[in-house]
Specification:
This protein has 1274 residues and is α/β, with parallel strands linked by helices. The protein contains 38 helices and 52 strands. The strands form ten sheets. The chain has a 13-stranded parallel beta sheet. Strands 29-31-33-34-36-37-44-40-46-38 form a ten-stranded mixed beta sheet, with no helix packed on it. The two termini are 47 Å apart.
Length: 1274
């Protein structure tokens, strides 16, 4: 790795011929160890080694060839054998090898039957001296001695002959392979012209304070390919590298940046995965990492400057870091404000020779064209004008028929449309599609479905266009691609080409097959000029407003659709159509009507052929399908229909598969017929909290009135994915949350529930994912099924205990951050404050009670330790009992055997009379000395005891202070008198000052003599056993630290010995050794909860969805309302009335939570007021929110966060949970800030000058009856 900017410059010019140079003394190891090592390296794919007798031809001079080979190698292995230092040839090689370290050359010494200290101190055969010879001069000997000392100080591999040579060779090869390999990205096999363009750019890599390179140009010109090429050539010169692909596509929608931030942060932080709570926080975390680390980053397809800022922030970047961005636009103005400097590079198209080469590769599979095709190939390259994408598509099209007449005909047609350049080439590729249905499918996707889930599109278009096979054809023809999360993707050039095809159908929009321009669609609907040729039409009134086009929404009539007999796809976003729906197109398959304006579905709306309906953000109050059975409808999305309170006769949609009711918070009645939907697989009721508060009053003849809470419907039997987050569910006798009638459930989300416990779910044998995040009252989870693969209990602050059907921990994913009172997870961990343990629990450590109020900061598992009490805790893992203490002095802790180092050995003594050996206490005293803290205890004996234990959490003393780790190992029955026991504390980032051991005896003689490890440790340990037989009792993957060089393989070798391949612990999990994941589970890991619609479709990763909130998704719509309201300066009577109703509902619905979190000593309200001097002329605003928080800590956190916002005058939190914020601030900023911390409802937004009047209105509203219309942000 380069150590300076100058060395970086040197390294950037090196062209490596070999991967590894072997330096060795031929007479010692040529025909044995080195020979075996050479062939073992050659066996590894991608590693090219050099040794003199293989690579140098006979008769050539040795020294120049050796010099060249060393300089052309990326690494060297120096085999230091007994006679190595007797050869001036070897010593000169060593000097040159060590000089290459400045250029990133990796050097690995192997001490073959020699002591490293002899090499370091030049003893024995390494005691070189000046000799009366021209080569053994004083200057040379001094240089050689320095080189021997340096190489002996490097981390290497000793080979003593006592261990298996095969194992040593494998370790050496793995070490070299891992050090050389570093996140290479895939480059297409068929590419050309990259080296030329790289040579034009590479000087940028050596420029100081020129952090950015912006590669911009037209789509398909090779920007991403060039970025990958630069990345692969230079990635080994940096400490950390990251390649973030396809950002523009992945960033459509709120919170889409989070996964990209997490990937980037992990890459530039040494492989450590860190959870990011929100985009803003993620930006700060990345900024910090960029200051410290020397990184190479590629941000591919940045669409706008804001994405760059969200990913990297605006802070200072390490001077030796380099960041490449690819974008479709010129970035001149992106770097004017920030202190960053950027070099721009406009992507040049391919020249004639490069175009011929690339076209030939795609047409013939070779850079050399077939004989007789040279002139035709030249004509094709000329028509493509150097665009790589056009060349790829044309070449693929020509490859389907290699007859010269076909080629001539195909190229002749290109010539007729030559003025349109690349567009003409792409149109020819479109024209070569085999069937008209495939062409129509391509145009539909280009105009309406780019970025939409493939399965969703297939369901809509399958019957008319054979979409399954048609999409496969388009993919093969390079006209379409599918992203890893199954979205249909299309190059922008290709999409524009498809739209141009439609535009060329007619000069009159009404005569075209598809209309998507808002102005054109509006004119067609307003003038009633629709025609039978129109198959798809899209109109977004909100976008039309932004286009500054004068229009009147009342001019739009349903009659405008009368003549559109062939209309199949209709998207009407926030459009109001007036008139009768009798003549609505009968062939309609897709109706996307966001913001549907009517309160009910018109009874005369023809829906029999519809496959998907999306009426998100509608004004529907009652949803009832028309008086017909709609057999074709499979997807119904009513997301954010805030006024919807009733669903009737849904049985008329018998084949419904997906029902989205997300954030329909006024919904109180769903008809019982929903139970009969036998095909319903996905039901999303997130945020429908009033649906489960419906109170049915039952009158008993003997005992009077009985009030029970229960829903008025039952869930369908067929469900496999059920979302009930933010429904405020309670577990009652009438609604026990058992889901006994849904045996096929695979995913269940009950987040933000109000239950204290749940029934046993062992009957849900197919349940794989359970999300209970933010269930603030949940105290225990009992008897969870062991078939469960993922469990999320984030922020369940009262949760204390989790048990399983069988007493073992089998979860593949487990999220528990914020569970500050969680003390036991069966089969995984138990962490309890000493103060809560009794004499039986503590046993011989009962004396620790005296220190129960002492404090110790715990580290190692941030999810478990964040927010937890700092009082002394007792940790139970693998039946090992341990605690971490300040540097106290107590006679009970005085060990029998003590060492001032990190290890000791002792012989097991005889037991005192009438005593039996129970186990041993191990103590170690240590201090913090660095980062990447690692702490292990290793115990082994000659007769089979071989345990290596890493505590899940450990004490972290203040810098300069010491702490004590005290652990009890119940292994007495495995220890015999006279056994030699070795105890070692293996560490990283710590300094161990002392370790000790005491014997623990029992008065009882009840222990079994032949107990196995399973009984001793308390569980099946097969998942934790290494190939050596040792038990590696660890629940985290330390191999990641080794991969990035933060922990060396030497460290692991000390831990588990020399006879094991350290890669054996790769991917270690909470359950131990990684197991083969069932393919069906892999599919389930990314639950494809589809919110259907062009701009609303989403695919959620379960781990991220568990931490997200529904308010994030609805924030954009809510914010747009606020923006409109604040522009006018006042709110309409209707909205003010809605606020009053919201206030009443908030108080009624959230009173329990408010009472829990709002109590203060002496009856004082929880209030924090921050005042600033108001500036002249500012428009002060008042935002009143109802906030539900589970703890005073969160309340203080929210006040602190709001107080930090610019322009805030005051923050007032009353005892009922109402939050009032006043200041010159955007209300959206306040709402977003508050919703990131707790469940938040908007009560009012208005001018601060009406403060007293608004307060009185809010108070009256809070006393009013329960209303359903409100805005909800979480």
């Amino acid at each position: 790795m380069a150590s300076s900017s100058s060395s970086t410059a040197m390294a950037s010019d090196i062209v490596y011929t070999y991967d590894v140079f072997l330096s060795f003394r031929g007479e010692d190891t040529r025909n044995n160890f080195t020979d075996h090592l050479y062939h073992e390296l050659k066996r590894v794919v991608g590693v090219h080694p050099f040794r003199d007798n293989e690579e140098i031809k006979k008769g050539e001079q040795l020294q120049p060839e050796i010099d060249t080979a060393i300089k052309a190698s990326r690494a060297s292995i120096v085999v230091l054998s007994e006679n190595y230092a007797t050869s001036t040839w070897c010593l000169d090689e060593l000097l040159l090898i060590l000089q290459q370290k400045e250029c990133g050359h990796f050097v690995l010494p192997v001490f073959y039957h020699v002591d490293p200290s002899d090499v370091r101190k030049q003893n024995g055969s390494f005691a070189i001296q000046v000799k009366p010879c021209s080569r053994w001069t004083y200057e040379k000997v001094c240089l050689w001695k320095t080189a021997l000392t340096e190489v002996a100080s490097l981390s290497g591999f000793p080979v003593s002959g006592l261990e298996s040579e095969t194992s040593i060779l494998k370790e050496i090869v793995d070490e070299v392979y891992n050090r050389l390999d570093c996140k290479e990205v895939h480059l297409p096999l068929k590419m050309t012209g990259m080296k030329t363009r790289y040579n034009e750019i590479k000087a940028w890599l050596d420029e100081h304070d020129l952090e950015f390179l912006a590669i911009y140009g037209m789509g398909g010109s090779g920007k991403t390919t060039l970025a990958k090429y630069i990345f692969n050539l230079n990635r080994r010169k940096f400490e950390y590298v990251s390649f973030v692909e396809d950002i523009a596509t992945k960033c459509k929608g709120p919170d889409r940046l989070l996964p990209l931030q997490e990937q980037l942060l992990k890459d530039i932080s040494g492989g450590k995965k860190r959870k990011i709570p929100g985009v803003s926080r993620g930006t700060c975390m990345i900024e910090d990492a960029l200051k410290m680390n020397r990184t190479l980053i590629v941000l591919d397809d940045i669409l706008e400057h804001s994405q760059l800022v969200d990913l990297l922030g605006n802070g200072k970047i390490n001077a030796r870091s380099k960041i490449i961005i690819t974008t479709r636009e010129n970035t001149d103005k992106w770097f004017n404000v920030s202190g960053w400097r950027c070099q721009q590079y406009e992507m040049t198209l391919l020249n004639t020779d490069e175009s011929l080469e690339l076209l030939s590769c795609h047409a013939f599979g070779s850079k050399i064209p077939k004989e007789g095709y040279e002139q035709l190939l030249s004509e094709g390259a000329r028509l493509c004008e150097g665009n790589p994408l056009a060349l790829e598509v044309l070449g693929s099209s020509l490859s389907e028929n290699d007859s010269i007449p076909y080629w001539k005909s195909h190229l002749r047609s290109f010539g007729k449309d030559i003025d349109s350049g690349i567009q003409g080439v792409l149109i020819r590729s479109y024209m070569s599609l085999p069937r008209d249905t495939v062409k129509d499918l391509f145009l539909h996707v280009a105009c309406f479905f780019v970025g939409i889930d493939m399965d969703y599109v297939v369901k809509i278009l399958e019957s008319d266009y054979s979409a399954t096979s048609g999409i496969e054809t388009l993919i093969k023809r390079c006209l379409l691609s599918v992203s890893p999360n199954k979205k249909l993707m299309m190059q922008r050039l290709l999409q524009e080409m498809g739209k141009k095809i439609v535009l060329q159908e007619s000069k009159l929009p009404a005569k075209r097959s598809r209309v998507w321009h808002n102005i054109e669609s509006y004119k067609i609907l307003s003038k009633g000029k629709g025609s039978k040729t129109i198959e798809g039409l899209a109109l977004d009134m909100k976008m039309l407003q932004k286009e500054d086009y004068a229009f009147t929404s009342s001019q739009l009539k349903t009659d405008a659709l009368e003549n559109m007999d062939n209309l199949k796809l209709l998207q009407l976003n926030f459009v109001e159509l007036n008139g009768s729906f009798e003549k609505f197109p009968e062939d309609l398959k897709w109706l996307c009507w966001l913001g549907f304006h009517l309160t009910t579905i018109p009874s005369n709306l023809y829906m029999r052929n519809l496959v998907a309906i999306d009426m998100s953000y509608s004004n529907l109050e009652v949803f009832e399908p028309p008086m017909v059975v709609i057999k074709s409808l499979k997807i119904l999305n009513l997301k954010d229909s805030h006024k919807l309170y009733k669903i009737v006769n849904i049985v008329r949609i018998p084949n419904l598969e997906t029902l989205i009711l997300w954030n329909c918070y006024s919904l109180v009645d769903v008809c019982k017929t929903i139970k009969g939907l036998e095909s319903l697989a996905l039901l999303n009721m997130t945020g429908c909290k009033n649906l489960f508060r419906r109170v049915n009053r039952l009158t008993a003849s003997t005992s009077g009135g009985v009030v029970t809470e229960q829903p008025t419907f039952s869930f369908p039997f067929s469900l496999n994915r059920l979302f009930l987050k933010y429904c405020h569910l309670e577990c009652t006798d009438s609604f026990p949350l058992s889901f006994s009638m849904q045996p096929d459930l695979q995913y269940l989300n009950l987040g933000n529930g109000r239950f204290e416990s749940l029934p046993c779910y062992t009957h849900l044998e197919n349940l794989r994912v359970l999300d209970l995040s933010s269930c603030s009252r949940l105290k225990c989870l009992v008897c969870l099924p062991n078939t469960l693969a993922e469990l999320y209990v984030y922020d369940c602050e009262l949760l204390e205990r989790i048990t399983f059907q069988l007493p073992r921990f089998t979860l593949q994913e487990f999220g528990y951050e914020g569970c500050v009172n969680l003390y036991e997870v069966e089969g995984f961990i138990k962490l309890v404050p000493i103060a809560k343990l009794d004499e039986i629990d503590l046993g011989h450590m009962n004396w620790l009670k005296e220190y129960k109020n002492h404090e110790m900061c715990l580290a190692g598992d941030d999810e478990l330790t964040a927010g937890r009490s700092r009082h002394i805790q007792m940790l139970y893992e693998f039946n090992i009992m341990s605690t971490f203490l300040p540097n106290i002095k107590d006679p009970n802790m005085t060990p029998k055997y003590v060492s001032k180092s990190s290890s000791l050995s002792f012989d097991v003594p005889r037991c005192p009379q009438n005593k039996r050996l129970k186990g041993i206490n191990v103590t170690s005293k240590y201090a913090v000395s660095g980062e990447d803290w690692v702490l292990f205890c290793k115990i082994n004996t000659p007769n089979g005891v071989d345990l290596v234990y890493n505590p899940r959490v450990f004490g972290k003393p203040e810098f300069g202070e010491e702490c004590i780790w005290l652990s009890y190992w119940p292994i007495g029955n495995k220890l015999n008198v006279g056994d030699t026991v070795s105890v070692s504390i293996v560490f990283n980032g710590l300094e161990v000052h002392e370790c000790g051991v005491s014997m623990v005896y029992s008065d009882e003689e009840t222990l079994e003599d032949n107990m196995g490890w399973e009984e001793i440790i308390g569980r099946d340990l097969s998942g934790f056993q290494l190939s050596t037989g040792a038990y590696y009792l660890c629940r985290r993957d330390f191999f990641e630290l080794m991969e990035v060089g933060r922990v060396t393989p030497d460290w692991f070798r000390i831990l588990v010995g020399d006879t094991i391949d350290y890669t054996e612990v790769r991917g270690w999990r909470k359950t131990g050794r990684p197991k083969h994941v069932n393919p069906s589970f892999t599919e389930l890991k990314t639950i494809r909860c589809i919110i259907h619609g062009p701009q609303l479709e989403d695919i959620y990763n379960i781990a991220e969805m568990s931490k997200s909130s529904i308010g994030d998704k609805s924030m954009a719509f809510t914010s747009s309302l606020l923006e409109e309201e604040m522009k006018s300066g006042t709110r309409s009577d209707e909205i003010m009335e809605e606020q009053k109703e919201s206030a009443g509902m908030s108080k009624a619905s959230g009173s329990d939570e408010i009472k829990e979190s709002g109590s203060q000593p002496h009856g004082e309200s929880s209030k924090s007021v921050v005042k600033n001097e108001p500036g002249g002329g500012r428009e002060m605003k008042k935002i009143v929110l109802a906030v539900s928080l589970s703890s005073q800590t969160k309340r203080r956190k929210m006040v602190k966060a709001l107080r930090a916002l610019q322009g805030i005058e005051s923050v007032d939190f009353d005892e009922e949970g109402k939050l009032t914020v006043i200041g010159d601030v955007d209300p959206r900023t306040v709402i977003k800030c508050a919703s990131m911390i707790g469940d938040t409802e908007i009560l009012s937004v208005g001018p601060a000058s009406e403060r007293q009047q608004e307060t009185e209105k809010d108070d009256e509203a809070a006393k009013g009856p329960l209303k359903m219309n409100k805005q909800h942000v979480t």
